[in-house]
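Support case: user asked for a sample of complex input and structure output to validate their parser. Sending the pair below.
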Amino acid sequence: MADVTQPPSESFRLSQLIYDTRYRSLTIQAVAMALIVLMLSWLVSNTVQNLEALGKDFDFGFLGNRAGYDINQRLIEYDSGSTHARAALVGILNTLLVAFLGCILATVLGVIAGVLRLSTNWVVAKLMSVYVEGFRNVPLLLWIIVIFAIMSESMPRPSDFRAAPDGTPEASMLLDDSVAITNRGVYIPRIVFSNSLGGNPPAVVEEEATGTAATGMTGYGGSRIATGGAGVSTGQDEPAAAAPTVAAPDAVEASGAPLPTSSGYDWLLILGVFAASAFGVRTVRSWASAKQEATGLRPRTWWMQIALLVVPVGIVFWVLGAQLAKPELTGFNFSGGIHLRNSLIALWLALSLYTGAFIAEIVRGGILAVSSGQTEAAFALGLRPNRTMSLVILPQALRVIIPPLISQYLNLTKNSSLAIAVGYMDVRSTLGGITINQTGRELEGMLLLGAFYLITSLVISALMNVYNNSVKLRER
Amino acid sequence: MSEVHAHTVSFVRREMLPEQAPPLTEVGAIKWLRENLFSSWLNAILTILSIFFVYWSLAHVLPWMLGGIWNAESLRDCREIRDARYGEGASVACWAVLTDRWNQLLFGFYPSDAYWRPIGALLVFLAGIAPILFSSLPRKSLWFTAVAPFLMYFLLWGGTIWGPVAVAAGFALGWAVFVAVSRAAGSLAGSIGAIVVPILYWLFLAGPLARTLGEVAPIGLTFVPSDDFGGFMLSFIIGIAAIVLSLPLGIALALGRQSDLLIINKSCVSFIEVIRGVPLIVWLFTASLLLNYFLPPGTNFDLMLRVIIMVTFFSSAYIAEVIRGGLAALPKGQYEAADALGLDYWKAMRLIILPQALKISIPGIVNTFIGLFKDTTLVVFIGLLDPIGLSNAIRATTDWNGIYWELFIFIGVLFFICCFAMGQYSLYLARKLRTDHH
C-alpha cells in the first residue's frame, strides 16, 4: 500500500475555478446568476423610476371599481355598474367558451380530414389536401376576418325573412323554422321548461365560474343563460340540446309568470342525471368485462348503455316539460331563442377550421406511424376490422397523436385572443382592452392578462399530460 | 383411363394462345376510376358528393373571378362598367382595386420613386440566403451572406452608408480580437474579449466614427422612417429579421434547457414557458404599451424594432422546444461517443450533437417559421400597417368603400405562396438529408 502514490494534497488555486471541471460549473452559474439578478434589478428599478415619473403607483385596487362599460356577449350577469374584476371574469368566461367550442369542432374536423386524406378515394384525398394546405398557409387573422365578412355581408338581413308583398320571403329559416342565419348573427332555438324549477339563482357562484372550461359551460346566471355543454348533448329527443349556445343579451325575455323558462337549476339537474347515467354506463361495462373474464363470453350491453344514457335524461326533460322556444321575427329583428353573434360564429369557425387543418396532419401522421404489420398481426389473430382499429391501431396512434394535439389545443386557446379582430369580448378585450384604457393601468392589466393565459396554458397542458400518461407506452 | 383419354382426344394444342387483352374494367382509365373513385358504395357516394361540391364552388367562383373588371377608378366605376357589360346586379369581381392600389398593398407608404430599394433589398436577401439553402452553390458566396443584412438595412432605411458600415466593422473587430487573443491567452479569454471589445466599440466609438466618415465622404440614400413602411414589405422585414435572429437564440435556449447547470436550466425553462404560455398579441401589446416602463427613462425607440424583438423572443421559445425534441430524440450513445472522443462541451455540440438534432428538427423549425411569418399580420393591432391593416385603410377610402373579397384573395394568395414555398423547401431538405435507406 505504501507504494501507491498519494494524490498531491489538495490546495485550492484560483485558476481551478475556470479550468477544473469540478468548480467550473459553479463559476458559470455564479456568473449567470449575477447577470440575471443585475438584469432583473435594472428592469425593476427602471420600472419604479418610470412609474414615479408618471406619478402612478402599482396597485390592483382598480379591479374593485365600477367598470362603466357594457359587454354585449356574456355568460354571467353583468351590467355597466359591475366592477372591473367582474368584467374580466366575463371576458375570461367568453375566452374559455370559444376555446372550448373551438377545441371540440377542431378535433372533429381534424379527425375527419386527417382520415379522409389517407383515403384511397382520389377526389376526397385531394379535396382534403386543399383544405389542409389552404388553411395552414394563410394567416388565421385573415380567415377570421373573411368569415366575419361572409357572415355580415353575404347573409340575408332579418327583414328578408318577412314575406315580401308577393307572398314569398327572400330568405327562409332552416330546420323547420327553428334556425335563422342572418347578417346580424345566427338565431337558434332555446330549450325552455314549462315546469321549470324556477327561482333564477340570484347570485352567480363565483368559484364555479372561474374554474375550467367545463364548469364555465354548465350555465348559470338566470334565465338569460341557456347552455348545452357536451354533457347535455345526449338528449336525443331534443336535437337542439346538442348545440352549444350562449346568452342572448338582446333576446326579449318572455314576460308573464307562467310562461316556460329555464334556469340554472334545471340544467344542473339534467347535468347531474347525465353524470349518474354515465356512471351507470361505466358500471355496466365493468360488469360486462368481469363476466367476460369469468365465462369467456361478453354479454351484449350496447342497448343497456344507450338506454341508460338516454332514458333518464329524457324522463327529466319530459317531467320538466321541455319545449323549444324558436326565434321569431318581430319587428326588425328576431326575438326568442338564442342569438349567436357574428363575432362568436366567425371566431369559432375560423379557429376550428384553422386548428382543424393542423390536427388533420397530426392525425394523419399518427395513423401512418403505426406500421402495417400491426394491422396484419391483428388480422392474423382473427380480430375483426373494427376491433383491430379500437384495440390495436388507435391505442398506438393516440400515443403519437396526443402530445402535439395538446399543443394545438393550447394554440387555439391562445389564438382566441384574436377576438380583437371581430370585436368578440374576450378577456383581452375587457381586461386587456377597455379596462386598461379606462383606468390607465397598463402594467397591472397586462400582468393579470399574461398571468391568466399562462395559468390556463399550464392547467390545460397539465390535464392533458395526465391523460397522455394514461395512454403512454409502459416499458419495463 | 389415360389410355382411353389418349385415344379419344383428337387434338392437342401445340402452341401457346396469344395473350388476350385484359378485361375492360381492369385497364386504363376505367380501372383507375374503379380503384380510386368507386371502390365501394361509401367511396362512390363520397366521390359524387365531392365532385358536386367542387362543381358547385367553381360554378360560383370562376365566373366571378374570370369576369372581373380590371380597369376602373373606384368601386362605383366598377359597378357602372359591370352594369353596362353584364347587366344590372351581376356578380363579378372588381380587380381594379388591385391595379389601383397594388403599390400600397406591397410597399405601404414607402416613397414611390424609391420602390427599387425594397425590391433591391429583396434581391440581396435572396442572393444572400441562396448559399445557405442550396449547398450546391459555391461556398465563397457565403461572404455575400455576411454582408447582406447590412446592405439590406442600408437599402431599406437609407441614410448614410457609414452607419451600417461602422456596425459591421464591430463584428469584424470582434473576430480579429478573438483570433489574436485566443492565440496569445487561450480561447476563454479570446471569447470574452470578442464579446466585450465590440460592445465597447459600438457604445463609444461606432457613432462618432460613422459621423466623421459621413462628413468626410457623404455617401447615402434618402432616409425613410419606419412609419412609412407597410404592406407585404413590412411583413417580410419583420418575418425575415425575426427568423434570422430567432434561430440562434432558440438553439441557445434549447441547449440551456438541456443543461445540467441548475440556474441556467431553470432560467431557460421559465423564459420558454412564460413566452409560450402567453399569446403573441399580448406580447405585442406589451411591446407597444409597456416596454417604455422597463427601459431607462427617456428611451424611446422604433415601434418596428420593438416588434421585431418581441416576435424574435416569441418564436425563439417555440424553436427551443422543437430543438429540445431533436436533442432528446438523439440516442444517448451519441453523447457518450462525443465524451469518449474527449471533445469538450462546445465541440461535442458543434460537431456531433447539433448537426443531427437540427436535422431531426427541420420540419418543426420550418413550421415555426411559417407560423411566425403568418403571425406578422398581428402587428395591425398595434398600429403598424401590414397588408390586412392596409386593406382596412383602402376600404376606408370613399373610392373603395365596401370592397372585401378581392383584397382578401390577394393577401391570402401572397401569404399562401410564401408559406407553401417554405413548407415545400422543408420537405426537400428532409429528403436530401435523409441518411437511412428507404
